[in-house]
Request: fold
Amino acid sequence: MSADNDATNNANKPLRRILIIAYGADSHADTLVASRLLERLRERSIADSWWLTLIEDAALRLEHALDLRPNDLAIFIDTSKHGKAPFEFNEILTRGAEPILPEADAVLPSDLLHALATIGRQGTLPPSFRLTMPLSSEASGEDIAPTSDTSITAAVDFLENLLGDTSNAHWRSETNS
Reply:
């Protein structure tokens, strides 16, 4: 689907800028899962849309608040050893009022929302969501476990479907909670 088709298919819906940040916070396996997920998402035609920004990083950084600033919706993709398969999708319920309290030098999505609220943004903070991929204990080295690979495939299909309807109500209806 090209950007022109995006505009035609969404003629009755306002186009919204969306940011997806995939990061690996704790280990090489985390980073590998995030990288593989974005790599597969980039293979989909939706990734060529002008309104979608994909960022991959080894960890969240406060500078990502500037990436978040012009967007209407955001998804933070990370991994968890306690995550449920194939993935979890939840809204980050913060108004940016929480102080930044880094844990072991880790920046959390709520820290970015706080930074964005602090540096100023006209209007409200963008609704933000977290897609958490389970990290299999089998994942190590340069390869990921088959269970992680299955979760990545399911998450990419989910994200492509989610991006087909960018209304807040639709995204909230797709959360696990």
